[in-house]
Amino acid sequence: MSKAGLGYAIGAYGLWGILPIYFLALAPAGPFEVVGWRIVLSLVFCALLLAVTRAWRPFGVLLRDRRVVLIMGLAGVLIYINWQTYVYATLSGQVVEAALGYFINPIVTVFLGVIVLRERLNVTQWVAVGISIAAVLVLAIGHGEVPWIALLLAFSFGFYGLIKKRVGPRVDAVSGLTLETAWLTPVAVIQLIVVGATAGLTMGAYGTWHTVLLLVSGALTAVPLLFFAAASRRLPLTTMGFIQYFAPFIQFVVGVFVLHEPMPPERWIGFALVWVALVVLTFDLLRGARAARRQVAQLT
Length: 300
Prior knowledge:
The structure is a single chain. The chain contains 13 helices and no strands. The protein is mainly alpha-helical. It is globular and about 60 Å long. α2 crosses α10 and α5 crosses α7. The two termini are about 20 Å apart.
């Protein structure tokens, strides 16, 4: 167990967990302005990182790989959908539903593995998927509508993870985020122009503190991703699997106990079913890890 890796992982998921508080502090900036600045300033931050670490040469090599550039463009579209949905959920008082999306994301990832990668699930994994589907049905029936924010967050990040898995170690965290935000920057600029022409941009109009908070959005986007990449290289997959629940748990606590979002009985039941599904999935993950270690021990 790497102490540094553990620190990086907790740092990444801890920062992701408190993002709702940060986005709420950006009021009266709306979701389209927040995401627009987030994209543009993330590109600036990544460019500075490439300059400081003198990583322009390997980044240039990636730019000559047309397939990688196009794949990262698709990743950019998915992360844009994820960011826009998440910021909208936060600023519209739906942090709890956003937390639900990241709670069910591991199960959605397993489900996508079956659909997209033709992977086979064992009985325990199918049970976890079945319980999570039941949870979504309970939430949909109880709330009167499908929890589209949670599903959109879970599936957009799930497909994003699949794409990142395909490019693998060829694309490091900084280069990947640089390519993604470079693709999205024209969209972000248009978005900011439209906001400026209609509601009006808040950058620089609500005091120094508000401006500083908006300016650090690029760093707050890139730093957790860099921490996550550093942790992934130092920690076992099972440990990362446990720690990934830090972010939605913190978001859930913020939504329920800080922002006092409503939690009717059917919502508690739905969340309870999701947590049961995660326990089942974690049990299967641990069992698989033990079996793999035994097999390695027998071979050596």
